[in-house]
Amino acid sequence: MSQRNREGKRGARERLREQRERERSRAKRKRTLGVLGAVVAVLAGAVGVGMVASRTEDDSGKSGSSVVPPRGAIGKGHLVIPSGMAEKAGRGGQADQAGKPAPVTLTVYEDFRCPGCKQFEDVFRKTVHELQDEGRMKVEYHLVTIIDGNLGGTGSVRAANAAACAQDQDAGKFRAYHDVLYRHQPAETRDSYAKNARLIKLADQVPGLVTAAFRKCVEEGRHDAWVRKSGDVFAHSGYASTPTVLLGGKSVYGDPDKPLSPNKLKRMVLAAARD
């Protein structure tokens, strides 16, 4: 074999060896980068979880960022504010401690900006209070935000939050403040209830309601998320408008062929008690 051939074979072997070395080095770098990538991904995931957990913890402590039901709220998701006998009477039609049947339940879905709701309240307020105070009927309020969605603004949410803040102060304060809001309801196109100062000023008409805690609750929107959740549930409830009024679970208001009057409501409540 000539010297040239031997040198050519050695050169080929050297090039093959160098190529294999390069491939091994390349594979080693890939493995190293893969491990580092996995570590970075794990660390990033841990940081992400920490950020989510931190954000959740931070947000949960801020008013309006998490669902905070008002004191005494009842029902599924604690989305119902009871008024009158519902605050102390038994449920499910069972007799109370005095041996009397539990009062019938009037369920009302309302929006504080809704003119139709004001009309219902103006006509039936006195009768509803009488039936409540006599222990014949309890009322369960669902606060709704339809007008905000239809006309824009935030007055429905702000007023409902303020009413929930009144419930926090004292169960009896909700009914009184609820009535004040309807008596002074602005025109549907005027979003006056979007102003917390207006809501707090109206609260002065309820003795003992305006406290530092009430002001803070209103101004920070403590129950905003709860109000929005209540509105969302109503939007998927199958009911189309406010007010929606149910007596014993059956719709009794809004049918032009079967109009409801205060006297008719009294008769229906008495009949339900006899049943």
Would you give an account of this structure?
Residues 102-268 form the Thioredoxin-like fold domain. InterPro entries: Thioredoxin-like_fold. Residues 1-24 have a biased composition (Basic and acidic residues). This protein is of the alpha+beta class. Helices cover 56% and strands 9% of the residues. The protein has nine helices and five strands; from the N terminus they run H-E-E-H-E-H-H-H-H-H-H-E-E-H. The chain has helices spanning 3-60, 115-133, 146-151, 155-169, 171-183, 196-203, 212-220, 224-235, 262-274; strands spanning 81-84, 104-110, 137-143, 244-247, 250-251. It has a five-stranded mixed beta sheet. Helix 2 crosses helix 9 (262-274) and helix 4 packs antiparallel against helix 5. The longest helix is centred in the first third of the chain and has 58 residues, at 3-60. Residues 32-64 and 88-97 have low confidence and may be disordered.
What's the short version?
The protein has 275 residues and is an alpha+beta fold. It has helices at residues 3-60, 115-133, 146-151, 155-169, 171-183, 196-203, 212-220, 224-235, 262-274; strands at 81-84, 104-110, 137-143, 244-247, 250-251.
Radius of gyration, in angstroms, nearest whole number: 33 Å
Number of strands: 5
- Mean pLDDT, to the nearest integer, reads 81
Beta-strand percentage?
5-15%
Task: List the secondary-structure elements in sequence, H or E.
Answer: HEEHEHHHHHHEEH
The global form is globular
The percent range for helix content is: 55-70%
Side-by-side strand order of the widest sheet: 1-3-2-4-5
Structural class: alpha+beta
Number of helices: 9
Question: Uncertain runs with pLDDT below 50, 5 residues or more?
Answer: 32-64, 88-97
Instruction: Kindly report how far apart the N and C termini lie.
Output: 120 Å
Characterize the largest beta sheet: strand count, sense, and whether it forms a barrel.
5 strands, mixed
